[in-house]
Amino acid sequence: MSVFKAYLKVLMKNSTAIFVYILVFLLIAVLNSRSISNEYNNDLENEKISIGIINESDSVESEKLEKYLEENFNEKKVINDTEKIRESIVSEYVSYVLKIKRNGDMDYYCNDKKVEMAVNEKISLFMRINGLLDKYKIKDADKKISDILNSDIRVNYYSGISKHKAKLEEDIYSYYNFNLYVITFVLIYAAYQTQSKFKEKEIINRIKISSKKIKKFKRELYRFYFAFVFIIWLFFMILPVILYGYKNLIDFSVLKYTIASFFYIMPISALACLTSDLIKNDTQASILINSGCLLLSFFSGVFIPLKFLPEFLKKVSSFFPMYWGHKVNLAIASNNFYSSETVIALSIEVLMAVAFMMIYLILNREKTSS
């Protein structure tokens, strides 16, 4: 019990940064939930979305699709170069770029989920109607397509769900995705602050003259740390229930996000232990923890979509849990949770947890014996 009291005392004494990060996260989450409760005014059906079209195909179908998209969206010229396309998206010159290859295959680039769903639904609808008219050899197919698509029948851009639910789905995904960054900072910072204080000479000398053995003391310290990890995780899992409502979360894969988050805290808590052992002083901690967590968030796809990052950055970030945590969240948002890619990502997180913890225990065993 004395170790638990000392652990809490150290944690509370150095809890300012933790509270600030949690407070900012809470503020963002609350603002998002409030915006959902209001009428969703960003009506994509009534605004002109800026898109770029790169048509490398000479087929009649691709020309029809290009013409149709030009009539329904604000078409702008985009250079046929991957880097230029990315720049156009990031700079918001266009919101969406469609590339039709010579063989008829299509690729698209987009940095906004709502726009992505809107344009893709239009393309999908056009292709289905065009295919049916061609199949049954309907005369004046071009005019028929135009008549059908411009009829009074309203097409839902969100694949059968309302705009309110589409906004809710996006915000829930954003919550769990941004949560990766907050949990990473909180756990690494807490691990450093508590473990560094218990490694001070004065504390070690007190332990040596007490009846408690150092190994037993460390076991208790680990136990309290992982209890703290579980409490933090539980807090962030209960929070969306309060903000968005239980019924809403049931509709949007809350169980999948909870499982994904649980798998994520395993490697990140182990990495936090290892990082706290490698950092030597408060100056290093301030630089490495703040800058490191922020950079990882950018390179792992949390703040910038992975498709806009160079390949070498993706390879570097794949050595860290946040990259795989983001991949799993992305799979959930894309309705692709039950896939081999998700199993691989979750397995890698477990292996990382074991590897980080083994390295940490080996380093500590050497220090204890010396």
Describe the structure.
It is a single chain. This protein has 370 residues and is mainly alpha-helical. Helix content is 71%, strand content 5%. It has 15 helices and 4 strands. It has helices spanning 2-13, 16-37, 60-72, 82-90, 113-135, 141-149, 163-198, 201-209, 214-244, 246-251, 254-278, 282-299, 311-317, 321-333, 340-369, and strands at 50-55, 74-76, 96-100, 106-110. The protein has a 4-stranded mixed beta sheet. α3 (60-72) links the parallel β1 (50-55) and β2. It is elongated and about 80 Å long. It starts with a helix and ends with a helix. The model is unreliable at 33-46 and 151-161 (pLDDT under 50).
Q: Which helices and strands, and how do they pair?
A:
Elements: H1 2-13, H2 16-37, E1 50-55, H3 60-72, E2 74-76, H4 82-90, E3 96-100, E4 106-110, H5 113-135, H6 141-149, H7 163-198, H8 201-209, H9 214-244, H10 246-251, H11 254-278, H12 282-299, H13 311-317, H14 321-333, H15 340-369
